[in-house]
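Notes from hallway chat w/ T.B., transcribed later so I don't forget. T.B. wanted the structure written out for a chain they're using in a teaching module, and asked if we could keep both sequence and structure tokens in one place. Agreed to drop them here.
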Amino acid sequence: MVFMISSCKKDEIATEGEKIAQQVQTVLTANSRIKTATFYISNVLVDQNQTFTLTGQYITTANGTYNLSRLIRYQPFSQSISFYF
């Protein structure tokens, strides 16, 4: 009796938030002058001119964390970017 063992690599499937994070990272890389972000929830300003970090599908500021899977749109400017959730 012959047993064959095969290993298969699990395909990595990016979530919607991860796909958006990749798009945002591309914009940030192309526009290295962007250092701050402004955040809107339901078109209401909630966080303005905040430095931020992008980790996975999350954007973190001193005031909170935002999940990019809930992002409606974003708008880059010359030195900042606005996120609409």
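Follow-up for T.B.: The radius of gyration is 18 Å. Might be a good example for the class.
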